[in-house]
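How a chain folds remains the central question behind the approach discussed here. For one protein, we set the task of working out the structure tokens from the amino acid sequence alone. The sequence in question and its structure tokens are set out directly beneath this paragraph.

_____
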Amino acid sequence: MKILIAYYSKTGNTQFVAEKLAEELSKENTVEVKKIELKKPLGIFKGSWEAIRGKEPEILDLGISPADYDMVCIGCPIWAFNPHPAFNSIVSQCGSLSGIKTAVFATHGGQKKNALGKMVERVKDKGAEKVLYADFMVEDKEKTARKIESFAINLLSGF
């Protein structure tokens, strides 16, 4: 199976999750990891405001098409109880997810409220039928790594 993991990370936590997930999934699959880069960086205050408002900042072209993959996983941090604005941008630009196994994941430092629900709805709006999801509070990397391993197993068996 060919899998894409696209993620945005500001502090490295989401990058840690994306790389560990890629490590787990690549044992039996071809995995491509793409980091989402903003054209203009967002500070925490402006970024949080844009997250609350569901904004879509400009991102660099990743040169990908979901149609080229069997599974697409998209991850980001949660800011102000919402997915980071980069998540909104990549989902808007990625084209149809119809017929593609889709997963979302998020990192956070505490309260997440309905951020994952918003992420799931956004990819469903792009045609994803069934969406698997997980959130990670990256404090203890060993504990987080075990949770990522479980998520990878669910991804491979849950569709």
Q: What stands out?
A: The chain has a mean pLDDT of 95. The chain has five helices and six strands.
